[in-house]
Design a protein that fits this description.
Strand content: under 5%
Number of helices: 23
Structural class: mainly alpha
Order of helices and strands: EEHHHHHHHHHHHHHHHHHHHHHEEEEHH
Radius of gyration: 24 Å
Strand order of the largest sheet: 1-2
Number of strands: 6
């Protein structure tokens, strides 16, 4: 948000005024702050449906096919299922935290062992996830347009990038509508090829179960193949961040909606990977069936297997039907990739530069990087790129999950998620240190420094180290680096009669719900989390000078957000 800060006497304009795009929460969607209850107007089912609509991507098809082609069915299927189990287990506590506290993945990471500036690194990791997978999905969409109408791939890459901008620009409301409207088309397109093959090639599944891959791996189980395959599949572990970008809008859990709320969070959070694993195996099967007809290279491109599967029933209509399915699928996922990327870049730059021109401007940064990757043909480097990325992604996600599940239950970290700069240390060695050490060691293993088996199982090394080191460092430091000072506004020891009551920020003079407010000795009153983040002159007095006198907040206001 482009902001102007200048000292002003009473009755003058607010000390900070946000640019129009940044101040419009219908577009911003509270990109850098807590999502207030007043904004969480969707039902649990609507939020879950929107979040699950974002996993319509066909990269699962390509990833599953590349794993099985490289390592054979037995090792490849075991790798896909093992990765899904890890992703599911680590996703449960993260999904519940995001939905409960109304926070995105970056804000949860801050309070779950990383610290205020420590999570800037994870913002970059998450941003790279969104533009890597945008480029991958965009490449698949461009392949479909090339196959259908002969559009050159280079132009197709540009079209796939530009087409999502109007939707992502408008925010969560537009995304929810797009996901709902396109869901029937996607479901029909997803199921139809398998239905055709069930009648036209009933023996194909049996042959697929004995497939030894295209690289001579053989049909038997191989620990090396299993390790490498799991590493590729685990690159999807950061997808929980994109699910969290929707889950933060889950309404408050009440006795009346408790069952629906729990089911929606489970389905839209870690539950995505159940569908994802099925799509990976299904994509590998379609590629196997099409292999002889189209060759290895095209079999890895989802449009070609889709087309070959539909041809027996649809004939000449198979191409347009397959193309429509691929294009719809890729739009559904890439609006999510672009949206989540804009949130992540916003979080990163707001802390580094103390400025925020608005979430929408970072859409163009994210899409520009993704377009460059597409033009460089990153699709051809799919396996190696994803295998490398998963070492960093899993170290981050497992460290956060370890804090939420282990540290908080053992009392090594606060029992709630604190995300505001005013109460956090810059870096918390518990989560941040665990991630850095785990990812460094696993990357060295990935490049073969410790031998072939360590190379194959580098992601397991990352996960194991992060899981052990996060609580170990928290115990060694006695949890000292979680809170720089107690939160006397709405911390766990503070009795709050109404968490939805709003207070005026003394800087921007807008009203925010209590969880988004901190007490600031510099302004001698309440300050919202975003104004606190963007202040470059306060010197962090509130958490560097020791305990001071109490700061009296004004009475709550009923002024709407």
């Amino acid at each position: 948000m482009t902001d102007t800060v200048a000292p002003a006497p009473a009755a003058q304009p607010p000390r900070r005024e946000y640019a129009k795009l940044a101040a419009d929460e219908s577009r911003e969607d509270y990109s850098l702050r807590y999502a207030p209850h007043s904004f969480r107007r969707w039902s649990p089912g609507t939020v879950a449906g929107t979040a699950l609509g974002g996993i319509a991507y066909l990269a699962d098809f390509a990833i599953g096919a590349s794993i099985v082609f490289a390592y054979g069915f037995t090792s490849g299927a075991a790798a896909i299922l093992a990765a899904a189990a890890v992703i599911f287990v680590t996703g449960i506590p993260i999904a519940r935290a995001c939905a409960t506290y109304g926070l995105d993945m970056d804000l949860v990471t801050r309070g779950a062992g990383f610290g205020y500036f420590g999570s800037t690194l994870t913002s970059l990791i998450y941003a790279s996830f969104t533009f890597i997978f945008f480029a991958l999905e965009g490449s698949i969409m461009a392949q479909a347009m090339h196959q259908a109408v002969g559009l050159p791939l280079e132009i197709g890459y540009l079209v796939t990038t530009l087409i999502v901008i109007p939707i992502v620009f408008k925010g969560m409301g537009a995304l929810a509508k797009v996901q709902a409207w396109t869901q029937p088309i996607w479901l029909i397109g997803l199921v139809l090829p398998f239905l055709v093959l069930a009648f036209e090639a009933p023996d194909a599944w049996g042959a697929f179960a004995h497939f030894g891959g295209t690289e001579g791996a053989g049909s038997g189980f191989s620990w090396i193949g299993f390790g490498f395959g799991t590493g590729i599949a685990l690159s999807l572990i950061a997808q929980i961040g994109e699910q969290a970008d929707y889950l933060r809008f889950m309404p408050a859990k009440t006795p009346a909606n408790r069952r629906r709320w729990n089911l929606a969070v489970l389905a839209a959070g870690p539950g995505w990977v159940i569908i994802g694993a099925a799509k990976q195996l299904g994509g590998a099967f379609l590629a196997f069936v099409a292999l002889e007809a189209v060759g290895k290279t095209h079999a890895l491109e989802p449009i070609a297997p889709q087309l070959e599967a539909l041809r027996p029933w649809l004939g000449g209509l198979a191409l347009p039907v397959a193309a429509v399915f691929v294009i719809v699928s890729q739009i559904k996922i890439n609006v999510t990739n672009a949206y989540s990327g804009s949130l992540s870049w916003s979080n990163f730059f707001s802390r580094v530069t103390h400025r925020h021109p608005g979430r929408v401007w970072y859409i163009f940064l994210n899409l520009g990087i993704a377009l460059t990757l597409m033009e460089l043909n990153m699709f051809a480097m799919l396996g190696k790129l994803l295998g490398f990325y998963s070492n960093v992604g899993i170290a981050w996600i497992v460290a956060v999950a370890a804090d939420l599940v282990i540290n908080k239950r053992l009392g090594l970290s606060p029992p709630y998620i604190e995300f505001k700069r005013a109460y956090l240390y810059s870096v918390n060695p518990a989560g941040f240190g665990a991630m850095v050490i785990a990812s460094t060691v696993s990357i060295l293993a990935f490049f073969g420094l410790f031998g072939t088996y360590a190379e194959a199982f580098s992601t397991f090394i990352a996960a194991g180290l992060a899981l052990v080191l996060c609580p170990l460092i928290a115990w060694a430091t006695k949890g000292k680096y979680y809170l720089a000072r107690p939160n006397t506004v709405n911390g766990p020891d503070v009795a709050v009669s109404d968490v939805t009551a709003t207070h005026l920020c003394s800087v921007c003079e807008s009203a925010y719900e209590l969880p988004d407010i901190a007490d600031c000795p510099v302004v001698s009153g309440a300050i919202c989390s975003l104004c606190c983040s963007l202040d470059a002159t306060c010197g962090d007095v509130c958490r560097t000078t020791g305990p001071g006198g109490p700061v009296i907040l004004p009475l709550p206001t009923v002024r709407g957000l």
